[in-house]
TrEMBL record:
Keyword tags: Nucleotidyltransferase, Transferase
Organism the protein comes from: Bradyrhizobium erythrophlei
Keyword Nucleus listed: no
Keyword NADP: no
Protein name: Glycerol-3-phosphate cytidylyltransferase
Segments forming domain Cytidyltransferase-like: 6-132
Organism lineage: Bacteria, Pseudomonadati, Pseudomonadota, Alphaproteobacteria, Hyphomicrobiales
A GO molecular function held by the record: nucleotidyltransferase activity
Amino acid sequence: MIRIGYAPGAYDLFHIGHLNLLRRAREHCEYLIAGVVADEVLIRHKGVAPVIPLAERLEIVRNVRFVDAAVPALTNDKVDIWKDLRFNVLFKGNDWQGTEKGNKLERDFAALGVEVVYFPYTLSTSSSALRRTLQNIDALAGHTSSGSDLERAA
């Protein structure tokens, strides 16, 4: 039986952690589907709007050589997604492992015969950290430009 993998993620501000996840996932399956979480789903479940729009994130992920297909994830319910895609291995970062959400995911998928495989979370880079850095740069730029305006007015 061919191993069809599913690697869900926002893939916003695409970085080395995303690439590592997709590379490792591809090493564990013959066909890899990346589920790119829709903007509305990110806002509803994480309270964060993506910086990069869904269509662009799909295009970026679709063009990663480890990915065979990139599809929008229009729900946060992985079992509903499985009903459409019928993957037999699900890949997640190990920040889920041992958590209530991760344990539920493992139980739900064990009942469907789907293996859950965790990969090390890339601590050095995350979309959240990149987003904070961008906000800090914006705040600094706003502070600097208003200071310059005040100096010019004087």
